[in-house]
């Protein structure tokens, strides 16, 4: 497609709302997914840290 003006580009031949809405939804889903993964990663690392500390405490208190 060829657009003569920026307005034509944003309008996309009458399909601009669908096209740009699709881009917006896709971007929102990707950003949300990245945020969820970062929060989950932090939670898992904290859990592993707690397990590691607990394991070291059990080894240190075990009678010889």
Tell me what the structure shows.
It is built from 2 helices and no strands. The termini are far apart. It has one domain. The model has no long low-confidence stretch (mean pLDDT 92). With 64 residues, the protein is mostly helical. The chain is rod-shaped, with a radius of gyration of 26 Å.
Features:
single chain, 64 residues, mainly alpha, 2 helices, rod-shaped
Tell me the distance between the termini.
79 Å
List the secondary-structure elements in sequence, H or E: HH
Q: Largest sheet at a glance?
A: none
Helix-and-strand structural type = mainly alpha
Shape descriptor: rod-shaped
- Number of helices, counting only DSSP H or I runs of 4 residues or more: 2
Low-confidence segments, given as residue ranges, are none
Helix proportion? over 70%
The amount of beta strand, in percent, is under 5%
Number of extended strands: 0
The figure for the number of domains is 1
Average pLDDT rating: 92
> Could you tell me the radius of gyration in angstroms?
26 Å
Topology:
Blueprint: H1 6-11, H2 16-61
Q: Brief description of this entry?
A:
This protein has helices spanning 6-11, 16-61. With 64 residues, it is an all-alpha fold.
């Amino acid at each position: 497609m060829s657009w003569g003006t920026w307005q034509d580009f944003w309008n996309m031949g009458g399909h601009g709302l669908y096209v740009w809405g699709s881009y917006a939804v896709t971007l929102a889903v990707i950003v949300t997914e990245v945020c969820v993964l970062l929060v989950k990663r932090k939670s898992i690392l904290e859990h592993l840290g707690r397990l590691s500390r607990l394991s070291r405490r059990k080894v240190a208190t075990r009678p010889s």
